[in-house]
Amino acid sequence: MTQLNRRQIFAGASVAALAVAAGGAVACTPAGQSRRGTGSDVASLPSGLKDQLMKLTESHHVAGCSVSAVTRERAVYADAWGVARAGRPMTTLSTINIGSVSKTVTAAAVLQLVADGRIHLDGDVNDVLAQSRAYGPQSVRSPYYPGTPITVRHLLTHLTPLANGPEPGPYGYAVRTGPAPDSGELGRWLHDFLTPAPRGWAYDREQNFTRSQPGQAHWYSDIGFDLAGFLVHAVTGQPFADYCREHILGPAGMVNSDFDRDRIPDEHRAYPHAWFEDGVKKGMWLDYRNLIPVAIADDFTGHVEYSPYASCLTPDGGLRSNAIDLARWVRLWLCGGVMDGTQVISSAQSAEALSDQVSPAVMAASSAPLPFISQGYAWHRLRGDAAGVWQHAGSEVGTASYVTLDTARGVGAAIVMSSEVAADNDPRPRMLQQLLDAVAAA
Length: 442
Hints:
Beta-lactamase; six-stranded antiparallel beta sheet; three-stranded antiparallel beta sheet; 13 helices
């Protein structure tokens, strides 16, 4: 992705290396913590560490922040500070858009169907689309390589020529206080975006596609993951969000996470925030004034709360989650796809997701916005990461999040923020390093 007004922006320009100590795998065993995800049985951060993290977020104008740190066996720490929304403090259950961390859930949904034999990783996406009863694109091909299939594996590893294109108009960010977007909107947008004119009103071969051959170039693609999510609907007949709720979030015990804002209890809803200085918005994202319910004075400095908003492009970044549920998500991946004795993702597919799926030569020429050195299924590693570290960051308008696995030490961490951070001055990598080191030493 090259545009800062699209759904996912990973981290700052420089990302600290996440050191990994040598160590073997540890068996995952239930730790007796609450399956309902209240977090009441998880310890707060040590006071010294919390003070350091609070000072760091305050210096970066973060409105509210929640964090968690885990081992394979249990959530060890969870804590929060700052503001979730007007009149409500941030808690470990404060739930907000987590941006592209959602892609790890989308990958899990596809991998479940691969394990069931309903989707083939190296199959042509058109073979799936041809059998779909859901409204959407009937065929997806690069206009520059019309004879080369785009495969499901390409979607999960950012090897497609699908660019993010222009802003999606009525399918993009909009203030929505009622039900979630119609599940059919995703298919309609993909149809309009990927189907040549006159049937597709948003089709633009120059903006919607790169000139790379499918499978030959690494190009971070939000649209690729939206198409992957649509394939879940096409194969199962269930809208993507419904499938994930039933087959992933529920079995994983992530009971306070959902793609539908109205399913989140009101007391847990956090709102996005933007930081303004002298009337000018700061942070990664463009200034979406249509999401701000008040006028901003030219001399205003401080946080502004966005109205609730939503987009139908849920597979690439629409999940709403919190530090407690993401602790479970991190543990699930550390445990080979198992949570509380339930095999949510097959051990084989989990291992493949956290392994190199793209050749070093292709990764060396990656056009991703950060220095990728390895690409799994959604999960990736960056320059400076030691062996065994896999991560995914995310951002939405007014939010920031991050999840990291240190598979060698058997620990992981998650961060959820109710405001943006700056692309060139991101505190999250440093925070994650401190959390990982603390939980490894606990």
